[in-house]
Amino acid sequence: MRMTIVAAALMVAVGVQGVAAQDTASAKKEVSFKADVTPLVKKYCISCHAEEEYNPSEFSMDTYEITKKGGKRGPAWVAGKASESILVQKLWEKPPFGERMPLNSKKKIAAGTAKWMTPEEIRVFADWVDQGARNN
User: If you compute the radius of gyration of the chain from its CA atoms, what whole number of angstroms results?
Assistant: First the structure.
């Protein structure tokens, strides 16, 4: 009986370590600007935030270099600090200023048909910024 308890405790400890190792591995997955962020920019952002388009924020996202410049409110991100970065804050349900991005009409919002980024898609931007917002 004692052997069974010890064996069970060992299996639980190994299982917990395995789960922790998986969580750490997934948390450390490197987010690529080119492979992970750019497709989301193309899907949600570039239709309004292209250099050729007028937008009141004067924030364009055509390339990494242009995006890095930011707009009227300053730099788009603070490398290593997603929660302090406008790029991420504007994706939240209640941004600190202005409208949530991507823009939706008031009619769509009222009808419940607005299209927002998923939490997983927002996490891509946040993880990328937290990892240093590199042009990778």
Answer: 20
